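Structure tokens
________________
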Amino acid sequence: AAPSPAKFFFRVYAAGQPTMDRAALLKFISSIGSLALAAHFQGATAVTEKSSPVVQSIATSALGGKDAVDADAFASFVQRECPRLLSGAAKWVEIQGLGSNGAEVPDDAPSWSVRSSIVGVMGSDLGRTNVLSREMLWLLSASVPDAYLAAGAWTPLYNSVAHGHGANRFFHHVLHYKGPTIVLVRGDDGEVMVACVDSEWKVDEGAFGGVNCKLLTLAPLISH
């Protein structure tokens, strides 16, 4: 059987080595992040381990406190925490036309059915928020439940930079929206937490939400 995208790209970048240490893993994740952004954004800047806390978060989480990780452990982490993490890199390969112009396709190259892996954000200037960078959008798109991808591009409802802080400002912009929502919160120390809410927000009506409600942490560690 063909390997998963995670195993395939891991083995390609590991260049014959059975494991990757932190330094190698940071370069690998930076590379697949750069490919994902290049497949979805024109003129995307390369992702680097020094400039992106997202790369650090993925690497630290994948290592799980160990000095190195092998392909099986990395693939298991991806499947558990961010199952679409490698879809962007696979999309880039698809766009480039792997095997065209006489290029040789490896015998174990997987035949993935690749769909767009980074959700578009309608009418959004990502530069206006200090939370939802392109790199964070890549990780977020890879991590949320499938139900939050069904509608296609996401519509921004509330941004504390543009709309002000405080619960009253938040509820003013999100109440009465009927679809699922995703809330990103960044703490003072750089923690990024995500609340996935699959129903309309309500006030003073007790608990609400269904089976696709989820709490995630994306930095400094990824966890569900």
